[in-house]
Design brief:
Elements: E1 15-19, H1 23-33, E2 37-42, E3 46-51, E4 54-59, E5 73-76, H2 80-89, E6 99-103, E7 107-115, E8 121-129
Parallel strand pairs: 1-4, 5-8
Antiparallel strand pairs: 2-3, 3-4, 6-7, 7-8
């Protein structure tokens, strides 16, 4: 018999760390290419951005075991074709073209994948209403 863990009150993700070897270069990418709002910088090695209420923290890896690509973040966009074209114009390297992932009852799910300025794999996703 298993007992449920007591509720600890987790309701959302508050912050995600993204590794960046060059925080200034990465900050420029996230602010000027992706269009995210810069919240603040802390010292030479930290920059914080708002992404729909989730804070993204750009940081240099503190130890060798932390020096690896980040988890894949999927950014939701209203029009994936337009976002893809706009980002390509800004020189973003895409791994593929926008493609249909799944036909859902009320929308189609589309995705495409790109690399940020630090080589981290990221995704764009769009739920296209039928």
């Amino acid at each position: 018999m298993s007992t449920a863990a007591p509720a600890i009150g987790i309701s959302r993700i508050g912050q995600i760390a993204i590794n960046a070897h060059d925080v200034e270069r990465a900050s420029d990418f996230y602010e000027n290419t992706l269009g995210l709002k810069l919240l603040f910088k802390a010292g030479p090695g930290l920059a914080f951005f708002d992404c729909g209420g989730v804070r993204l923290m750009l940081t240099r890896p503190e130890k060798p075991e932390f020096d690896h690509p980040s988890s894949i973040l999927y950014f939701t966009v209203p029009d994936i074709q337009s976002a893809h074209a706009h980002m390509k114009e800004k020189g973003v390297h895409f791994e593929d073209e926008p493609h249909l992932i799944a036909k859902m009852p009320d929308h189609d799910l589309w995705m495409t994948f790109f690399r940020d300025s630090e080589g981290n794999l990221m995704g764009l996703m769009s739920e296209v209403k039928k």
